[in-house]
Automatic annotation (TrEMBL):
One of its GO terms (biological process) is response to toxic substance. Keywords: Cell membrane, Lipoprotein, Membrane, Palmitate, Signal. PROSITE patterns: PROKAR_LIPOPROTEIN (PS51257). Residues 1-22 form the signal peptide. It comes from Azospirillum lipoferum (strain 4B). One of its GO terms (cellular component) is membrane. It comes from the Bacteria. InterPro entries: Entericidin. This is Entericidin B membrane lipoprotein.
Amino acid sequence: MTTVKKFALLAVLGTLLGTTLAACNTMEGAGQDVQAGGRAIERGADNVQKKM
């Protein structure tokens, strides 16, 4: 395999790895946002229940 082909293969693999890691971070952030929303709803429900 020539040096140019090795470099091209490494570039492609690096790009795929970077994209995969970025997607994981995005999904983790989305999960944290959903979790924070759930906590806010839970606090609101607790407040309503205390007023009853």
